[in-house]
Backbone:
């Protein structure tokens, strides 16, 4: 059976403190949490740079020459600071605060969930905007790699 | 199945707003308005809720709620790290009534009543929510409903009651309904 389309109300975003670099590794009993009050519009992208190789002056094939770091952005309404990732804890084995992010979409028609994982995220450009219906905190994470869609998650 | 219990719904918000208005209007009334704290059966009230079928005698206020709608969804329906929830908005109507019969001051009185409502609701943008599961002993929920967009709207004269003068105020409010 095909899955239904997913939507905003089905996608929760969890984080866990990372350890080391290059994959989903965590220290024992790492800090973790679940973002609340996330507004619609979360997005991520990871640019890939291809070079065109020519054959006798005509485009012949592509070569993947660079995979940039990814960027994941979302806004939420400021309310539950206890659920934000720690900004004063350096991840083990690296020189920056790092977390892994996991985006879990429930798939009730399939009796399970679908996941995306984002490895070794650092927070760039913290931004807060006052607003009548809730002050807005904008998160922008840079990540090294992502994995998805997959049917198994780490954070539940 | 457990007994139905939902202290975060529209009923809670309506009751909490009504409680706030009742508690605070009493202490703000001018001398030409009287407040009867425990009206006897059939006695007119200074403040009425939800268009009651009971003796009506101006000057008086009337409060009614016109329903609510969804304002904002959140990712995963997560209101915070623990609860699910959605932001909803509702509309409250506050009416002011005076009689112009043998009352040369009616226009000033009606204007004062309108200003009382505006001042009260603009001074208090965040109003505490109470769980009214037990109506005689409401319990604070440590949450709030916020008022916004308080405005007066036009009222058509009532040809059947030409001496009854009315101002109609609409107040929008929003809160997070947790579930």
Residues:
């Amino acid at each position: 059976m095909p899955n239904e389309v997913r939507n905003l109300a089905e996608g929760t975003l969890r984080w866990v403190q990372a350890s080391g670099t290059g994959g989903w590794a965590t220290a024992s009993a790492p800090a973790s949490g679940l973002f609340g009050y996330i507004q619609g519009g979360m997005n991520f992208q990871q640019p890939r740079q291809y070079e065109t190789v020519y054959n006798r002056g005509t485009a012949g094939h592509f070569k993947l020459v660079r995979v940039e770091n990814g960027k994941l952005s979302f806004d939420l309404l400021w309310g539950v600071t206890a659920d934000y990732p720690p900004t004063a804890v350096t991840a083990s084995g690296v020189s920056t605060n790092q977390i892994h992010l996991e985006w879990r979409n429930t798939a009730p028609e399939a009796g399970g969930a679908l996941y995306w994982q984002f490895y070794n995220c650092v927070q760039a450009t913290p931004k807060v905007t006052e607003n009548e219906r809730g002050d807005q905190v904008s998160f922008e994470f840079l990540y090294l790699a992502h994995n998805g869609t997959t049917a198994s998650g780490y954070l539940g | 199945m457990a007994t139905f219990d939902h202290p975060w719904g529209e009923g809670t918000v309506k009751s909490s707003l009504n409680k706030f208005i009742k508690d605070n209007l009493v202490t703000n009334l001018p001398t030409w308005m009287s407040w009867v704290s425990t009206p006897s059966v059939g006695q007119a009230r200074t403040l009425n809720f939800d268009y009651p079928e009971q003796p009506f005698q101006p000057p008086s206020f009337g409060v009614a709620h016109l329903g609510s709608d969804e304002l904002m969804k959140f990712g995963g329906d997560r209101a915070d790290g623990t609860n699910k929830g959605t932001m909803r908005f509702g509309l409250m109507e506050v009416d002011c009534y005076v009689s112009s019969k043998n009352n040369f001051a009616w226009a000033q009185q009606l204007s004062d009543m309108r200003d009382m409502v505006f001042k009260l609701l603009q001074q208090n943008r965040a109003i505490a929510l109470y769980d009214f599961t037990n109506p005689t002993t409401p319990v604070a929920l440590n949450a709030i409903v916020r008022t916004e967009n308080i405005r007066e709207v036009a009222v058509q004269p009532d040809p059947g009651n030409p001496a009854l003068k009315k101002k109609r105020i609409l107040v929008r409010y929003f809160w997070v309904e947790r579930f």
About this structure: Chain A has a mean pLDDT of 91. Chain A has one domain: 10-150.
